[in-house]
């Protein structure tokens, strides 16, 4: 059904309304559910239900290429698939024009937020939610639910590979997942501090999945990515898929950051005192005035407090960045 098992090329060529289709392979069934959404169901009962999503932002191509290659190897029968697997390429119309989105940032539309919006991204977010719900609910009740939502960042980072751990509402962090992320080359974890409308929070909060937004370096166009920078996560994902098993390796070096403040663009003249080459997780000295506007300013509280996701090219009232502070890995409540 998919020429040369190149699902990414197929999806880019059919960016909306692909015809659903099912095909039986030796050992598994592959079901194309809709544009960019494909499910692999092994014939033997699987103990893991794994969602890999990429391209929720259309111009974040490296994770799409990574996932596409893994899927090609499964369809070529070069890689054994022992897990239930749902692959999602999120925003193909935006990918086709090299844009983050066409009308609305899709990663702000989950947990039902899409219902208040109109247009392609809203409709697609609703479909993606439904396909994830169906996928988890149709698997064995005791299967381990995992979801890695793969992205690349707009700007550079002191830690080019980092993950956002969705807000857990006081539940303990997974030591096994922290170990997996460290083995995957992830250098830092940002602990989210509140409910959000991201895709990873949706899977975590509504489907009890171990779920993460994973940032894998910087944005580049199709064919311009150096996938050798992603060999660690390529290896751990392939191991997970073929063995249905996570490495029994404890996290030791990964940096942990908690959110201490949210910066908000509170007027049209809001300014951040950083330059264009600013990298995520860069720290400041205590007393530095990081932002100012006609109605507020923000002074750094403790030396080392760092900024992530700065952005002021957005409407007044939206988030202009997150202030974070490092916490010791051993102080995290882990299970
Ligand atoms: Zn993204």
What does this structure look like?
This protein has two domains: 3-243, Zn peptidases (Aminopeptidase); 261-323, OB fold (Dihydrolipoamide Acetyltransferase, E2P) (Beta Barrel). It has 335 residues and is of the alpha/beta class. The chain has a 13-stranded mixed sheet, with helices on both faces. A three-stranded antiparallel sheet has the order 11-13-14, with no helix packed on it. The radius of gyration is 20 Å and the shape is globular. It has helices at 7-13, 61-75, 92-96, 120-137, 175-183, 199-207, 231-243, and strands spanning 21-25, 28-34, 37-42, 48-54, 84-89, 144-153, 161-165, 188-191, 210-218, 255-264, 271-272, 282-283, 289-292, 297-299, 306-308, 319-327. The structure holds zinc ion. Residues 57, 60, 151 line the site of zinc ion.
Query: What is the CATH homology-level superfamily of the largest domain?
Result: Zn peptidases
- Main beta sheet strand tally, sense and closure: 13 strands, mixed
| Apparent shape | globular
Distance between the termini: 43 Å
Number of domains: 2
Provide mean pLDDT, rounded: 96
Low-confidence stretches: none
Bound small molecules, which ones? zinc ion
Total number of strands: 16
Beta-strand portion reads 25-35%
Radius of gyration: 20 Å
**Second-tier CATH architecture of the largest domain:** 3-Layer(aba) Sandwich
Task: List the helices and strands in order.
Answer: HEEEEHEHHEEHEHEHEEEEEEE
Trace the largest sheet across and list its strands: 1-2-3-5-4-6-9-7-8-10-16-15-12
């Amino acid at each position: 059904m998919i020429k040369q098992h190149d699902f990414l090329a197929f999806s880019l060529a059919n960016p909306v309304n692909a015809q659903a289709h099912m095909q039986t392979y030796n050992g598994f069934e592959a079901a194309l559910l809709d544009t960019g959404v494909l499910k692999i169901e092994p014939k033997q009962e699987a103990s893991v239900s794994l969602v890999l999503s990429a391209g929720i932002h259309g111009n974040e191509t490296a994770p799409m290429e990574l996932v596409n290659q893994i899927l090609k190897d499964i369809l070529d029968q070069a890689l054994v698939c022992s897990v239930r697997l749902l692959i999602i390429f999120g925003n193909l119309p935006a990918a086709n024009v090299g844009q983050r989105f066409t009308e609305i940032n899709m990663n702000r539309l989950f947990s039902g937020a899409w219902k208040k919006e109109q247009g392609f991204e809203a409709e697609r977010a609703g479909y993606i939610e439904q396909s994830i719900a169906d996928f988890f609910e149709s698997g064995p009740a005791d299967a381990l639910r995992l979801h890695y939502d793969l992205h690349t960042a707009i700007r550079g980072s002191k830690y080019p590979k980092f993950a956002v751990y969705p807000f857990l509402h006081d539940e303990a962090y997974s030591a096994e997942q922290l170990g997996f992320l460290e083995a995957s080359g992830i250098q830092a974890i940002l602990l989210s501090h509140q409910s959000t409308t991201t895709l990873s929070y949706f899977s975590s909060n509504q489907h009890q999945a171990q779920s993460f937004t994973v940032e894998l370096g910087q944005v580049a166009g199709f064919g311009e990515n150096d996938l050798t920078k992603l060999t660690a996560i390529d290896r751990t994902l392939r191991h997970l898929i073929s063995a249905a098993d996570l490495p029994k390796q404890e996290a030791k070096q990964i940096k942990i950051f908690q959110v201490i403040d949210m910066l908000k663009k509170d007027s049209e003249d809001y300014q951040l005192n950083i330059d264009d080459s600013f990298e995520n997780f860069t720290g400041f000295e205590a007393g530095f005035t990081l932002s100012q506007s006609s109605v507020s300013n923000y002074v750094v509280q403790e030396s080392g407090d760092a900024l992530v996701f700065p952005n002021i090219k957005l409407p007044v009232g939206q988030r202009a960045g997150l202030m974070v502070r490092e916490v010791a890995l051993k102080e995290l409540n882990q299970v």
